[in-house]
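Fold it.
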Amino acid sequence: MHLYERQAKAGGLLRYGIPDFKMEKHLIDRRVAQMEAEGVTFHTNAHIGVNVPVQNLVDEFDAIVLTGGSEKPRDLPVPGRELDGVHFAMDFLRQQNKRVSNESLGNAPELLASGKHVVVIGGGDTGSDCIGTSFRQGALSVTQLEIMPQPPEKENKLLTWPNWPLKMRTSSSQAEGAVRDFAVLTTRIIPNGKGGIRGIECVRVDDKMQPIEGTQFEIKAELVLLAMGFVNPVHEGMLSDLGVEFDPRGNVKADVVQYKSSLPKIFSAGDMRRGQSLVVWAIREGRQCAHAVDKFLMGRTDLPR
């Protein structure tokens, strides 16, 4: 089995997307060593469709599984978005992980929260990682905004599985001192007249996420990090070169039995197939896809599904 990753070290999102204070990288190194001992060959610095033509893989291998994740971030189309100081969360986190592991940042300008008022837009795990990283870099303040209303302090006890109990949750990073605000829509990034930013303009929204008249306000910000989730896998490069078919949401189209894409011997699983989701779904689909690929190659399989 050959595993291709565009990063300098094996581990992908675990290594470059999750901060060390949340997951120490020696744990990844240990698992990579185990997988190599089991027969997996890792190809790093191999960005398929960029520095490695995807046709090379099509010509060399009998089966290809697309599991690159859902990496295209949801953007914030408001006036001022183009200003220096507004960045996607993963660009910020990836750079810090490289900095901690003494890897080169290349020609990318440094993204640092040091001495700045930071606003994180988005309330998920990625947003929490941005909060913890900003505090460790020496941010003056960190404010986290969510467009959803504030959850109740306690969940509805009558709710039954598989429904997710909705209640107020506080991550370890949020507990370090972030100011959290809910039901807030960002309408404009305020420039500082020097190419950067000095704040954002917001408005409160109702339960239908519609602006409430007369509730506009401003928040001081010199760094805005967009952590609003991901819309679909990146199409440019590997996927467009392959010519694989997409579903209506822009994910690689494949079923959940054979995990076959629209192209011969090309399979897909995880977030690249289902869209942004939980790691448990990626694990489940990975195992089921391995079952399907083994059956495709061997005509039968003893792998669990």
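The first strand starts at residue 2 and ends at 4.
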